[in-house]
Amino acid sequence: MTEPLLQLTDVHTHIGPYHILQGVTCDIPTGSLTMLLGRNGAGKTTTLRTIMGLWRASSGKIRFDGRDITTCSTPSIAQAGIAYVPESMAIFTDLTVRENIVLAARSGPVDSARLDWMLGLFPALKRFWNLPAGNLSGGQKQMLAIARAIAEPRRLLLVDEPTKGLAPVMVRSMIEAFRALKAAGETILLVEQNFYAASALGDNVLVMDDGRIVHSGAMSDLVADQVLQQRLLGLSLDAHQ
């Protein structure tokens, strides 16, 4: 079997006196979109931030593309090819859309073919190209945050709740954009609370509870099992249609 692109083994993370991750073990296969689901406070965001080195793992091991990155700095993890889109989006609202993209491409100007591809994913960004990013709607800001993450080729995208607070029409646009990213062969680990979006996108699923992975498998199997949905997440897909 092919070695996973990302592998967490018994990862623990403490934030101050709080023991947030309590032995997270999971694999992220290359070329897949893996959903990370769980109730509020389960440890999903902490998992992403620990992978990026923004919070340091207390113990355990994180391997990326065969390399141990557990103790690496965040800049070095980013340079290895991991991009992170936080829930806050972290765009520069006073800068134009174009300037946000330029700043994200640290190795030089964005290749014109890649820029055309990005703007094809998110057409709204082209319309607002020379306007301050602060003028964008919430959904458009989320699109810009993702576009910044892929301004340069990346090996892995970590995305935290991209559809949170978006209107249904924007959720559908986001789903289509992620489908296109999947079709392009991107490897994505995506935290999502919208189970409808998760079911539409996920190849694989990890479910967290109380700082641990309590379920892993094919997303299609979870979608087909309402009893399992209710037990793991306290919801069912029918309630989110």
TrEMBL record:
Record flagged with keyword ATP-binding: yes
GO BP term, pick one: L-amino acid transport
Molecular function GO labels: ATP binding; ATP hydrolysis activity; branched-chain amino acid transmembrane transporter activity
CDD domains membership: ABC_TM1139_LivF_branched
Domain of life: Bacteria
Keywords per UniProt: Amino-acid transport, ATP-binding, Nucleotide-binding, Transport
InterPro entries reported for this sequence: AAA+_ATPase, ABC_transporter-like_ATP-bd, ABC_transporter-like_CS, BCAA_Transport_ATP-bd_LivF, P-loop_NTPase
Keyword Lipid metabolism in record: no
Gene3D superfamilies in the cross-refs: P-loop containing nucleotide triphosphate hydrolases
Domain ABC transporter: 6-235
Similarity comment: family membership: Belongs to the ABC transporter superfamily.
The protein's name: ABC transporter ATP-binding protein
